[in-house]
Amino acid sequence: MSLPHLARLNTQVIRVNALTWVALLVLLALTCGSAFLRLGPWNVVINFGIAVIKAALVVLVFMKLTKGAMTIQIVAGLAVVTLAILALLSGTDFWFRY
Amino acid sequence: MSSDTAVAPGADAPSLVVGEQFDDAPQQQAAASLGMWLFLATEIMFFGALFMAYAIARVRFPDAFAAASRHTELVLGTANTAILLTSSAFMALAVEAARVNARKLTMVLLLVTAVLGAVFGGIKLTEYVIDYRDHLVPWLDFAFDPRHATGASIFFSLYFTMTGLHLVHLVVGIALVLAVAWGVGRQRRNVVGDHVEIVGLYWHFVDIVWIFLYPCLYLISRA
Known about the structure:
The complex is a heterodimer.
Chain A: H1 11-34, H2 42-62, H3 70-97
Chain B: E1 5-7, E2 17-19, H1 25-60, H2 62-69, H3 74-99, H4 103-133, H5 149-185, H6 194-218
Antiparallel strand pairs in B: 1-2
């Protein structure tokens, strides 16, 4: 049984979403597999780097941030920048305190 | 009823109703999206504080965090990550289906998304039961290697707090998805389109939070 009205969806959109989904699962396999390798501090770098890439794929493809209004992009950007500033300030305090 | 609403012009969204405070349907949709993005910005701050607490605790107790992480259920956590990523893909398709006003397809895709979310929740609760049986719940009968007990206790406190709050967000997301699916099924005016899109944004955000939780909690040291 086929899904109703599936043909009404743009095939390009379906293809992009499917490829993104595959990419996300491949990245999941990579990050999981890398955890079993003794890479020292690089384990953290790889895990966090892959997480950032996966989040970027979701934000850019699924949430279509770049296709939204400029105000939305500013809000999203400001949220990340504000979080980075707060993390930097907290991290600096922690670094010199301990 | 007074004429405080008007059917939006344009054949693409014959069921869309525009509030009187908006000039047209695109402006209304842009406002709805902006509102959800603003809410998500506050959510980033909310979860960001927890991730910061996690980072500081991990720097202070690196060995204990590595030891504690090895007690998490990697297979279940990885399966859950795949399930949530898949649900996001279905949600993205649901938004596209709503955009072309394919009501039945939108409803089916939303229901698949909700079911995948429910499966995620079920697996997460199963993990909690396993953790409880393994004496890994800090507020109950916590038992761990004495060399790492303090750090491991902090790790699992953060684990339950962060995954618990994520689970609450997921349950809210499932409720929202089902509500919108029900509205689409009932062919309620104004549901298809902007409602599906803003619920989709929320769902993807919940997915993103888990994308960062997964390596932080499950993958610290498996080698």
